[in-house]
Write a structure and sequence with these properties.
Radius of gyration: 21 Å
Largest sheet: none
Strand content: under 5%
Number of domains: 1
Number of helices: 7
Order of helices and strands: HHHHHHH
Distance between the termini: 33 Å
Length: about 180
């Protein structure tokens, strides 16, 4: 169990290091590559998505305001595709640091039996990794470190911490109910 936890955590940190070392990394080409892999591997998903999309009603009157906002955003995004790249980058930051924090919690929980203490240390570790990664990026050509990115990364750390807290709450409540303590 401990070896697997170390392996998962180290692979994630290595992937972060490699991705952060790529000069001028853009998200859209990476997503295009993954999309081409996914479409080659699983055509069933594509057919299911098309089937599902064909079943969505075209007249959603109660969602008019959402539709208007979406249309305005899509109009703006077509003229300024950099906004899509921006959202994809920030989403990637959140997802990466969410995953790293969960993996770090999993690793630490192998050694620290107090789940809440392991979570606190994992969250602190996620923040420290975020800061170190942004500092390191400032030395990569075509990249720069950003306090804003640290804050976005911390959103991923915070979401992971909340998910873990929620899971711990459910697990603790379930054990207490099962044992007959209310």
């Amino acid at each position: 169990m401990k070896k697997r936890a170390w392996l998962i955590f180290l692979l994630l940190v290595a992937a972060l290091f490699i991705l952060s070392s790529i000069p001028g990394l853009r998200v859209l080409p990476v997503l295009s590559f993954f999309y081409s892999l996914i479409t080659r591997v699983d055509w069933g998903f594509v057919y299911f998505a098309r089937w599902l999309a064909s079943r969505i009603p075209s007249d959603l009157g109660e969602l008019y305001y959402f539709d208007a906002i979406t249309r305005d955003f899509l109009f703006y995004a077509r003229r300024n595709p950099v906004i899509i790249e921006f959202f994809l980058r920030k989403t990637a930051h959140v997802v990466v640091f969410f995953t790293i924090t969960v993996a770090l919690f999993y690793l630490l929980h192998q050694y620290i039996r107090d789940s809440y203490r392991a979570l606190l240390i994992a969250a602190a570790g996620g923040v420290i990794l975020s800061i170190l990664d942004e500092i390191r990026q400032s030395f990569v050509e075509g990249r720069h470190g950003s306090i804003f990115d640290v804050m976005v990364n911390m959103a991923g750390v915070g979401l992971a911490a909340l998910m873990i807290l929620f899971a711990l709450f459910i697990a603790t409540s379930g054990r207490e109910k099962f044992a007959g303590r209310h």
